[in-house]
Amino acid sequence: MEVKFNSLRDLVKLIIEGTVTFNDDSSAYSLIETMCDTYFEDEQVADYRGHCSADDVQQELECDLGDYEWAEVIFYDFDMHEIKNQLAISDRCSRLYTDDELEHFISEYLSCWRKNAVNALLDKLKN
């Protein structure tokens, strides 16, 4: 099915809503990814990344989650098992939190980050 859109903003909205998908190697994805990476490198947007409380263990997780690219956070549905494998979760984290608690924190963090990133991107596309 061919989908017509009037602007990049419309395309991003359709992608976020799940109406439009594309392959990672498509030119449309490359364009969006480049735009995200370029835009979110701007220091003015640093505050859009979701931050949780200042607890040491949460900060440790937050630093690892911060390695994800903006485009990845917006467009990919992360597999929790994969995320946990990629995070360098310390013994201290494992002792203080159950698996369910860690998963809940990671999920909340990514959800907040995705929402803020999407809003920032849509704001940028208004201009």
Structural class: mainly alpha
Distance between the termini: 29 Å
Low-confidence stretches: 43-54
- Which percent band covers the strand fraction? under 5%
The 3D shape can be described as elongated
Largest sheet: none
What is the number of E strands? 0
Q: What is the number of independent domains?
A: 1
Number of distinct helices? 7
| Gyration radius from CA atoms, angstroms | 16 Å
Order of helices and strands: HHHHHHH
Task: Provide mean pLDDT, rounded.
Answer: 61
Residue share in helix? 55-70%
Structure description:
With 127 residues, the protein is mainly alpha-helical. It has one domain. The chain has seven helices and no strands. Helix 1 runs antiparallel to helix 7. The longest helix is centred in the last third of the chain and has 28 residues. The two termini are 29 Å apart. The relative contact order is 0.16. About 9% of the residues have low confidence.
